[in-house]
Amino acid sequence: MSTAAHNPLTRVVKRSLDIFRVLAITGLIAWPLLALFMSIGHHSEEETWGVDIGVFSGFFIDLTAFTADVTDSPGVRDPMISGKAVLNIDTSSPRALYLFTAILEVGGIAGLYVLIQLRALFTSLLGGISFAPENSGRIRKIGFVVIAWAVINPILQYIGGRAILAEYSLNIPGIQLIPAFDVNGMAIFIGVAMIVLAGVLKEAARMHEVQTLTI
Amino acid sequence: MPTTIKVNLDLLLVQRKMSLTELSDQVGITLANLSILKRGKARAIRFSTLVAICEALECEPGDLLQLDRET
Known about the structure:
The complex is a heterodimer.
Chain A: H1 3-6, H2 8-40, E1 52-62, E2 80-90, H3 94-126, H4 133-166, E3 175-179, H5 185-212
Antiparallel strand pairs in A: 1-2, 1-3
Chain B: E1 4-7, H1 9-15, H2 20-27, H3 31-38, H4 47-57, H5 61-64, E2 65-68
Antiparallel strand pairs in B: 1-2
């Protein structure tokens, strides 16, 4: 039996993954139902849902709207500040709520798939199987999901953000919100690294099989 | 079918009227590993294993291993 099977951390991670899996499944089922009930049961006299919708957005802040002469401040060359941030909007728009729910669900399904693969991997490790082609396949799948998510998530966030911000008006002079698009390069790098590592593990599994079947 | 190595362990055991368990005791190789060898599932065989089996069965390596040519 491999050392990974005797490592207490393997068991701790496996149990944590069990809990995360239950939480993820519960969330994936409960959240759309909650969103549906909220939209059905919403009364017009209530201003908002009471639930913050996180919208990844870009922002421009015109400092001249807040202070008379910014250029007098040492070091400030451009009165326009721009950046990207998650904007929590408490909105009453059902469309915004559904879009937010759909984006969360897509991310949740990808996350659940990764959790299932990780759980199977750790179950295999606990069973004393470290170098197996199945484990290599699982790491490879996780790598592909991480890359797919790193590419799809910004697109979804951009589309969702654009639709939500179109219905949202921020009445603060000098601040302008735009939908943001930001690809997570580090996630793509991690995904590629995982696919490469999966290839190494596949070769290790092949060598382990040869060693096991050498009498 | 690609050319493979055929292991004639079962034939030699029958000729010597010896069981796999007896051979396992004599050569010090586990029954599971001898079974893998007997069923032709082994990927490789160590020289030390070959020597031990040949000594126990009083045969030559050529009696134990046979080239199974592509048909």
